[in-house]
Design brief:
Elements: H1 6-30, H2 34-42, H3 45-77, H4 79-99, H5 103-116, H6 119-130, H7 136-164, H8 168-187, H9 203-206, H10 208-216, H11 219-235, H12 237-250, H13 254-283, H14 285-305, H15 309-320, H16 325-335, H17 342-371, H18 383-402, H19 406-409
Helix pairs in contact: 1-6, 1-7, 1-8, 2-3, 3-4, 3-5, 3-6, 3-17, 4-5, 4-6, 4-8, 6-17, 7-13, 7-16, 10-17, 11-16, 11-17, 11-18, 12-17, 13-14, 13-15, 14-15, 14-16, 14-18
Membrane topology: Multi-pass membrane protein
Domain Major facilitator superfamily (MFS) profile: 12-407
Subcellular location: Membrane
């Protein structure tokens, strides 16, 4: 397969943008209704909250197991079939969730969601396949924009559909995922040339432990992988405590929370579309990474101490600049990895993200519960945001120490 032309690269990026957008939109649709559906099954808000935590942990654990397998499969057989299978699987899974007659049926469906949603691993590898190294940060910013658009529109639309029927968003999400499959089946091109594929599928390399160990074979990305892990650990503060924090601190209900999430998504889209490329070009990938992480620290500090809701909102555009860090780190990592290893490395990184998803909800919820309880040394609902800020501050230090400078990237040799 010859090097893709600029027009073919642009078309392929549009395809993968839409694939990711529809997947994220489908997941965003069920955010406002899944807890209420669980509440219907349990009959108790407190019990439902416990089960939602279980759902989140199980989902992340399954992603931890599935991501390296999908990455290895895409390295061996190509990106296109793995992405298509994921879209089809998600469509069927949302149908199962829409029909779920019991809580356990719903939990089983979430297990399958964890398996098929690991396609984001392959999407990242796809971008690395079709984009020159110097343009990858901007391209990953486009994929970040797909996440932003999906999570901006999805919850608002899901909340509106959920007012009609709690299960209607699941049917709508199923339709989107199956439409995504049909779209990709006809228009999504393969990005990985047969000559660049792994010679065989290695089950030992697809195991999560082995996949993470694989990162150690590339010393230049170990520090960056640590940054990815810590940043995602901090990011889980949003789904872990935001709704409860907003209620306790500002008295915001579901309507207000939905619109705040809408604003978060809008800010994310603006940064990913209009700011990431320019910032990386102006600062370089390493300094853009550090700048983005530092903005995340500042935004979380505002959230932690904001005494009123309007002050909390002032932190949104500051925190949104954190989005610069992810594409910058991805670009730095992909520059130092062989083409036939991109899928496995992305799978290993997604496994780290999944580990963060397993650990973070318990950590942030526990801190929040402690600092609003009678046992609190001081009443401080913003404590989880401060914990997230401290985590990102650690990530800034690691990035400063280990993110390679531009002149050193070219000198990195393959581990063989």
């Amino acid at each position: 397969m010859s090097e893709p032309t600029a027009s073919r690269r642009k078309a392929a990026l549009v395809f993968i943008f839409l694939v990711v957008l529809i997947d994220v939109l489908a997941f965003g649709l069920i955010i406002p209704v899944l807890p209420h559906l669980v509440e219907e099954f349990t009959g108790s808000t407190a019990t439902a909250a416990l089960w939602i935590g279980v759902f989140g942990t199980v989902f992340a654990a399954i992603q931890f197991l599935s991501s390296p397998i999908q990455g290895a499969l895409s390295d061996r057989y190509g990106r296109r079939p793995v992405i298509l299978l994921s879209c089809l699987g998600l469509g069927i899974d949302f149908v199962i969730m829409a029909l779920a007659p019991t809580l356990w049926w719903l939990l089983l469906a979430r297990v399958f969601s964890g398996v098929f949603s690991a396609s984001f691993t392959t999407a990242n590898a796809y971008v690395a396949d079709i984009t020159p190294p110097e343009q990858r940060a901007k391209s990953y910013g486009l994929i970040g924009a797909a996440f932003g658009v999906g999570f901006t529109i999805g919850p608002v639309l899901g909340g509106w559909l959920g007012e009609v029927d709690l299960r209607l968003p699941f049917w709508f999400a199923a339709g989107l995922a199956l439409l995504n499959f049909c779209y990709g089946l006809f228009v999504l091109p393969e990005s990985l040339a047969p000559a660049s594929r792994a010679k065989r599928f290695d089950w030992s390399a697809a195991r999560p432990h082995a996949a993470i160990t694989l990162i150690g074979r590339y010393p230049g990305i170990v520090g960056l992988a640590a940054v990815v892990f810590i940043a995602n650990l901090a990011h889980y503060v949003y789904p872990s405590v935001f709704v409860l924090f907003a209620d306790v601190r500002y008295g915001w209900g579901p309507w207000q929370v939905g619109w705040v999430l809408f604003l978060v998504g809008v800010c994310s889209v603006i940064v990913n579309v209009a700011v990431v490329g320019r910032t990386v070009k102006a600062l370089g990938e390493r300094r853009a990474l550090i700048f983005g992480l530092a903005c995340g620290v500042a935004g979380f500090v505002v959230y932690a101490f904001a005494p009123q809701g309007w002050i909390f909102l002032l932190g949104l555009p500051v925190s949104a600049l954190w989005a610069i860090a992810a594409p910058a780190s991805q670009a730095l990592i992909t520059r130092q990895v062989d083409v036939d290893m991109q899928g496995r490395i992305q799978g290993a990184l997604m496994s780290l993200v999944s580990v963060a998803g397993i650990l973070a909800p318990i950590a942030f919820a526990s801190v929040f519960g402690l600092f609003i309880s009678e046992r609190a040394p001081v009443e401080f609902p913003g404590a989880p945001w401060m914990l997230a800020a401290l985590l990102l501050a650690v990530a800034v230090g690691i990035a400063w120490r280990y993110a390679p400078k531009a002149e050193k990237i070219a000198a990195v040799t393959d581990p063989g």
